[in-house]
Structure formats: structure tokens, C-alpha cells
């Protein structure tokens, strides 16, 4: 029963800003791409 509730909760989970930024940074393919993405996040260009 609790597993069903956990699945239901995760289905309606809206990612926080921090989770979205972490996912965006984790998609970097190399060091230069990561640095570029970090600069975008710092400038506020990433939404």
C-alpha cells in the first residue's frame, strides 16, 4: 500500500529549481561544456 502511495506521489512530483539545475549540469558532455553550463546558470540564463 505504501509503495503505491510513493509511486503516486512521485508521479505528481514537480522538480525544484535546484533539481532542474543539477539535471542540466549532469548532461554536460565534457569539462568545457560543464563550465559553459555553469556560467549560464550563474548569469541566470538557464530557466
UniProtKB/TrEMBL annotation:
It comes from Roseibium aestuarii. This is DUF3563 family protein. The lineage of its organism: Bacteria, Pseudomonadati, Pseudomonadota, Alphaproteobacteria, Hyphomicrobiales. It comes from the Bacteria.
Amino acid at each position: 500500500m505504501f509503495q503505491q502511495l510513493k509511486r503516486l506521489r512521485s508521479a505528481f512530483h514537480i522538480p525544484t529549481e535546484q533539481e532542474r539545475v543539477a539535471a542540466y549540469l549532469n548532461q554536460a558532455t565534457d569539462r568545457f561544456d560543464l563550465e559553459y553550463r555553469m556560467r549560464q546558470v550563474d548569469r541566470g540564463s538557464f530557466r
